[in-house]
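Order emerges. As here.
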Amino acid sequence: MQEENFKVTRKEAQQLARIPGNVKGAVILANLEYVRQKGGKKAQEMIQKRLKELGYDISLQDIKPMNFYPEALSVLIILLAKEILKLDKAGIFEMGRLALKVSIFVEPLLRFFVSPLKCFQQAPRYWKKQLKVGELEAVKMDEEKKYAIIRVKGYKFHPLICDYHKGYFLQVAQTVLGKKNVEIEETKCVFKGDPYHEYIIRWQ
C-alpha cells in the first residue's frame, strides 16, 4: 500500500549522511533511469531540487558510472523516488530489479558464467566492486533442492532498502539461472533485531 504522505525530512537526510560507505555511480544512474521511465524528466528534476533542499548540493548530471559516491546519496535518491512517484514496496522492489537490468557492466558479465554455483561463490567479490560498505556472504547453494542463502552484514541505512535488495538479488538469480520462476524471501533483518540481513532464493 502506498504511503501518500511519505516525505523525506532534512533530519533523515542528515542521519543518512553520517553513515559511512560508498557506491559506484552506475548504481545511482540505474536508479535515476527508473525514475525517468516512471516519471519522465520532470521527476528527475524534482529529485535534483529535493536533494538541494535536503542539503545535498550535487549535480546528478555529473555522476560518472565508475566513480564512487556516498551510499547515503544512493539511498536518499531511492527514498525521494518513493516520495515523488508515490511508490509502494513493490515499486522499490522493481527499482532494485531494474538496477541490474540497465547495468552495462554487471548483467552482461553474469551471463558469461556457465555455472550458477560459480557465480554464487563470486557474489561477495561483485558486492565489493560495487559497494564499499558492508559485505555479502554466500552462505549455501543447493542445486539439487533448488535454493540458495545469502547474507548482507554491516549494512543498515533504511528499511526500504531491504525491498530494493530483494529485487536486485532476484534479478541476479533469474539472470544466472536462466529461469523466470524464482522467488526470494528476507528471513532475517537488522531492522527487526537480527545481526544481519538474510535472503533465501528458491527456484523451479
